[in-house]
Amino acid sequence: MTSPNSEAPVLVGTSWKMNKTLAEATAYVDDLVGAGVPDVVDAFILPPHTALAAVRDRLPRDSRIRLGAQNAHWAAEGAATGEVSMRMVRDAGATIVEIGHSERRTEFGETDEHVACKVAAALDHGLTALVCVGEPRDVRDAGGSEDHVVAQVRSSLSMVSGADSTSVLLAYEPVWAIGEGGSPASPEQVAPVVRAVRRVMAERLIGEAGTVLYGGSVDDTNATELLEGAGADGLFVGRAGLSATGFARLLSVCAAAHPLRHSTPNDREVDDAAIR
Ligand code: PGA
């Protein structure tokens, strides 16, 4: 299947990046839990490593908010000063681990090979790998977005071929769309790349259709059009999720947009034709 499943909840997550003390993290959890997560939305939050265990302990036992880490090393333990392992983030409460965010790639030299090792390590430790991919501006301008992203997804999944599709989430985040100074991609720009990502996931993974998110300058003013027109299963945000009230507002907007996502047989035929 190449279109989002209109019955499935919308998946909406946020990374806090390098923000929040323990007190700020627990206050956020209280506020978000108080606001509630709409039924048709699945939510996840990625605090900094220092706050993982505190957030886990603060979330109610029956909470529908999933918890994840923003990065982890591929080795289970060892002499890697300043790093934390998949095993350690899992122990601290993460069930998801983000891998290959563009800030990791550009500021910390993370390569496609590192990403592939980390995806394999995440799955070995029972974590869901949230793999971020996306092209820089010059690649988009040259018309190479799909090829670039397809190569990234193939490489990311190269060590886990045959794994279950539910163990991997793919986030398409064009580098030029992320953060201050970024501009959100249009649904028309996102849709063909999302279809290409789905096709590679279907080649490499087994089971149900893989989950693909869009990220990059998403907020409550553009979430609806992106969910409606980009064919993604959900959204991944930075700034729009940095306050609990902002994230709760975004979740409500996504819940309202949920029935607008299409998955008719005709849509699927069109999608399939477009990727052949
Ligand atoms: P942004 O960040 O929503 O602040 O653009 C997105 C991301 O880095 O994933």
Strand content of the residues, in percent?
5-15%
- Which ligands accompany this protein? 2-phosphoglycolic acid
Given as residue ranges, the uncertain stretches (5+ residues, pLDDT < 50) are 262-276
Biggest sheet: strands, sense, closure? 8 strands, parallel, barrel
Which structural class matches the secondary elements? Answer: alpha/beta
Radius of gyration: 17 Å
Instruction: Give the SSE string.
Output: EHEHEHEHHEHHEHEHEHH
The order of strands across the largest sheet is 1-2-3-4-5-6-7-8
The geometry reads as: globular
For the record, give the distance between the C-alpha atoms at the N and C termini, rounded to a whole number.
13 Å
* Total number of helices: 11
Number of strands: 8
Helix content: 40-55%
Give the rounded overall mean pLDDT. Answer: 92
Question: How would you describe this protein?
Answer:
The chain has 276 residues and is an alpha/beta fold. The protein is built from 11 helices and 8 strands. It has helices spanning 22-35, 52-58, 86-91, 102-107, 112-124, 137-141, 145-156, 187-204, 223-229, 244-257, 265-275; strands at residues 10-15, 41-46, 65-69, 96-99, 128-133, 168-172, 211-215, 234-237. It is globular, with a radius of gyration of 17 Å. Residues 262-276 have low confidence and may be disordered. The protein binds 2-phosphoglycolic acid. 2-phosphoglycolic acid binds next to β8.
Summarize the structure.
This protein is an alpha/beta fold and 276 residues long. 41% of the residues lie in helices and 15% in strands.
